[in-house]
Amino acid sequence: MTASSIDHLGLDLPRFEPGWVWLCGAGPGDPGLLTLHAVNGLRQADVLVYDALVGPEILGLARPDALLEYAGKRGGKPSPRQRDISLRIVELAKAGKRVLRLKGGDPFVFGRGGEEALSLVEAGVPFRVLPGISAGIGGLAYAGIPCTHRETNSVVTFLTGHDATGATPDGIDWAAVARGSPVIVMYMALKHLDEIRRRLLAGGRAAAEPMAIVSHASLPEQQVVETTLGTCVEDAAAGGATAPAMIVLGEVVRLRSALDWLGAIRARAGERAGA
User: Fold this and answer.
1) Phi and psi torsions of 139, nearest 5°
2) CA separation for the pair 121, 137 (Å, rounded)
3) Which end of the chain is more exposed for a tag (fewer CB within 10 A), N or C?
4) What is the model's pTM?
5) What biological-process GO terms show up in the record (predicted)?
């Protein structure tokens, strides 16, 4: 592998220079959803500073001699402070390392990539942003749920289920979102789903509106709980939904009955195994 190509693709991809930081999105989990830029970075980086949602198969694409540093944040568990993570990647870059800051999904979609990039700017560290497939799009696609469909919605809202303190965000105008967005895609919302349900119902959403909770999206253990806004908390518990999870509310959820391509593949594999 040379710095300017991946295998035999013949692509002129950027060389990872010492002292640089690449803020990279690793996608929702399936290694096949990595971008070529991400793989290029993995094969050149001296140090990977990676998040909790980056799996071992993705880390296995790094150089054998690369240093792996865990910087994962998981709700309710001891986690490094964001300031400490930012200072660490600055420190590594200042030491002349090629630092790949590897995040699940996309670094600029609820990934704190903007905060880290501003820290790099302040420290005078050069950086590159490598977008990734956000779980709010790619993860739902693996569940057979499109974010938009011409017959259901031309608007979609992406929101986070908790703020910097870990509480349900008060900065969101929940009534306006309830009224104005036919489809609502929620990141990190499972913990506060009861409160979110209350606010959306108060804003005028129907209790019978379809909802889906997609746990471990795009991974072999992916699980989808189809429910409604009115019964989502109870159904999530009964169905064993666990974080990390994406939650989508809206009529697009009904399309899953026809578009669950991954379920169809698994069913065919099961039929072949039983033959």
Assistant:
1) -65, -40
2) 29
3) C
4) 0.92
5) cobalamin biosynthetic process; methylation; siroheme biosynthetic process
